[in-house]
Design brief:
The structure holds two protein chains of two kinds.
Chain A: E1 4-15, E2 18-29, E3 33-37, H1 44-51, E4 59-64, E5 67-68, H2 73-77, E6 80-83, H3 95-105, H4 112-121, H5 135-147, E7 153-157, H6 165-180, E8 184-188, H7 192-198, E9 201-206, E10 209-215, H8 216-220, E11 225-231, E12 245-251, E13 254-259, H9 263-272, E14 275-280, H10 285-293, H11 300-313
Parallel strand pairs in A: 3-8, 3-9, 6-7, 7-8
Antiparallel strand pairs in A: 1-2, 1-4, 4-5, 9-10, 11-13, 11-14, 12-13
Helix pairs in contact in A: 10-11
Chain B: H1 2-11, H2 13-40, H3 50-53, H4 64-71, H5 75-98, H6 101-105, H7 111-142, H8 155-163, H9 165-182, H10 186-206, H11 227-233, H12 237-260, H13 269-273
Helix pairs in contact in B: 1-7, 2-4, 2-7, 4-11, 5-7, 5-9, 5-10, 7-8, 7-9, 7-12, 8-11, 9-10, 9-12
The chains are: A alpha/beta, B mainly alpha.
Chain lengths: 317, 281
Amino acid sequence: MNENVIETKGLTVYYGPHRGIVDVDLEVRKGEIFGFLGPNGAGKTTTIRVLMDIIRPNLGNASIFGLDCQKDGVKLRERVGYLPGELSLPRNSTGRRYLKIVDSLRDKKADPAFLREICARLDLDTSRKIREYSSGNKQKLGLVSALMNKADLMVLDEPTIGLDPLMQQSVLELVLEAKEEGRTVFFCSHILSEVQTVCDRVGIIREGKLIKVERIDALTAQPFQRLLFRFDKMPAEDAFSFDGVKVLSRDGNAITLEVRENLPEVMRSAANNEITDIETQPVTLEEVFMAYYGRNNRMNKRSKEQASAVQNGGNDV
Amino acid sequence: MFNLFLHELRSRRTAILGWGLGIAAFGILIIMIFPDFAGQLEGFNIDEIEFYQLMGDFGDFASFKGFVSAEMFTFIPILLSIYAIINGTGTLAGEEDNGTLEPLMSLPLHRWQLVMTKALALAIALFLILVVISIGEVIAFNALPAGTELGGVEAVDLVVATLAIWPLIMVFATLSLLLGAFMPSRRLAATVATIVLIATYLGNNLTEMVDWLETLKPIFPFNYYSGQSILESGLDTGDLLVLLGTSIFFFVLTLVSFQRRDVTVGAWPWQRAQIPSHSEA
């Protein structure tokens, strides 16, 4: 599991005076699903385009399977399936013909039975002209072209964009199946819940710099409990005044607590105050992500607290 | 690779038929109206019309050679050069602009293979358009009334004069490919290519009227194509070689330029070369 499929060192790309990515050191291990997170313009697509040798870095180098992305691009791309984030396909071709061209340029490595299977699972009719496709169907065709040759590495930039929830689920299943077969997936997505579902590790890129690489479970681990209690009647202000316990919110008949110590006392106090319901609230990847970006939204305060705890407790992998 | 080539050719199918049949209809019309015009044009000196002075020397306009040269072999190269520019800039720069190049470039394909395949499809498409036009001309030529004075021109001469347009339009096709591979956008590449087309066309024809342009004549592609002279004395191998050599030169520069291009960036090469001094990298 220690073999790196993707490696970048000091990767830097500038678009004239504008920053693309700066000094990105990235390692993606064989057989993992690596989530690459960042908002628009953070540098995700730039990184991917360097990996695919579509653009060249100003500084640093990138390799896939130990092969230099520029010098050995053709050789390494034989083993890569790529779905661009901004997918455009030839409008006048049929889906089937497009897949045939892609497959022929990969020396016909796609198994026809597997191709039929993924088209069926994604409910894609390849006999139609691409110009007749909806945006969702174009996305499916792009996915099929990336998946069909069972590449050792799949680079998927926003793979579920434009798909309905059922299809999103199918795509995630295909990604997980690829991992089960020992293949590697580089997974960019804005949908953090799906990243949390499928990815083993994530890298967070901000303003062109890779600011965090961490296992998902470590990133969302928390050295405390976050508990939400509901009561028939709101308890007194000091009902949970214990060491290591912080009231995060009091809203209607609900109180949210961050409990680091004295959990039995908290539970006893809750019971004494006619509790009607209790919920544990795990930290989500979305909260961690928002915290790294310091966005001023309704989750901000809580997110910052969670992320602060995560950052203090977690180590880079 | 062959499938990609077929796809490239197939994607030009409509253009081949549209431009081919459209221009063929124009050629057919010119040939078919000649018998009616021949008598009326007797003794007419086209060189007295300023517009035609800008289009070159057509000899005796009342003759079949002069008439088809002035009316057909003047406009067809211009029209097809426009198509060559549209399609030439659309082939790399246009596909880069609309995003269809990126998925292709992620496949195990050398950049030179991609350019070569697309350029070959473009070249063949241009040739096929000329073939369609030639077929139309031959049909019209054979439909001319018996006794029409043709000055010794045969159908095959029209075909040769038409197909000889191919090296000329290949110059503009490969120039457009080059500009598309070098410049930031298709729009800019098409604009520059169109300016070159107009400037070299008018420049070449104005050499008859402007002395100082005479020295520039060798750099004008239109200097190396004349329907009139092909109908009179056949193909000039030297002219063909100059045009083909220029096309090959532009094509090689396209390969070099595209090899170094940062696709999807839309910038001049030198804009990507330097890191800003304020960067932390």
